[in-house]
Amino acid sequence: MSENKEVNKDNLIYNMLKYLHIPLDDDLIAKLSLYVALLEEGLKKQRLTGEKAVNDIINKQVLDSIYPVKLLELFAGSNVLDLGSGGGLPGIPIKLCKPEVSMHLLEANKNKASFLNHAIDQLKLKNTQVLCGRAERIGQDEKYRNKFDLILCKAVAETAVLAELALPMTRINGRVILYKGPKGEDELIKARRAIEICGGVHEQTYDYKLPTGEERKLYLIKKIKETPGRYPRREGKPEKKPLK
Predict the structure, then answer these.
(1) Where exactly are the structural domains of the chain?
(2) CB-CB contact of 143 with 211 (8 Å)
(3) What is the pTM of this model?
């Protein structure tokens, strides 16, 4: 029975990669399958993702996570941060697809951070590091400020909040990717001032659909100037009182 389940999982991943027109590679399929299995096991203990069914984990969460891989120019020699990584989405699937990037997984919850370290070990990921802490604190750390070429934001938070948390850690001419649903445009309009204050500009929007027909958007924010030193504000402040 477990063998059939594994074959089904591999088939789902094969079809997902085909849907995205990503080269079909047996090693990538095997590693993505192992990652999904790790998520399944981890979900028995804590909420690592909003989906629990294997089909939904693959065709919603993992597929959504790796869609930016199609935008290959974004990952050329990139130093990448997954902000609010949770169970490793989108950072781990992207790392599996683009093993040459240096990946940092930022997660404040210690139990989730522990899962991420376990996943990194099981998947034998190189140049992958977990940062356990709040983005407000990490963003004020000189070690990480202006450091990253690309920051991935799939975490559930308003665009204005994500802009304040992500842009201080993004280098000049680096980019932030915001994963949003169909209502993302309203958030983006409300966040334009926050993006500007923190040194960014909305560069491009990518529209796509999941196999379920659900609409998704990727917003690409480019950092064009330094973020003022007072941002991000102290812990909890960006969420409680977003910049306007």
Answers:
(1) 60-240
(2) no
(3) 0.94
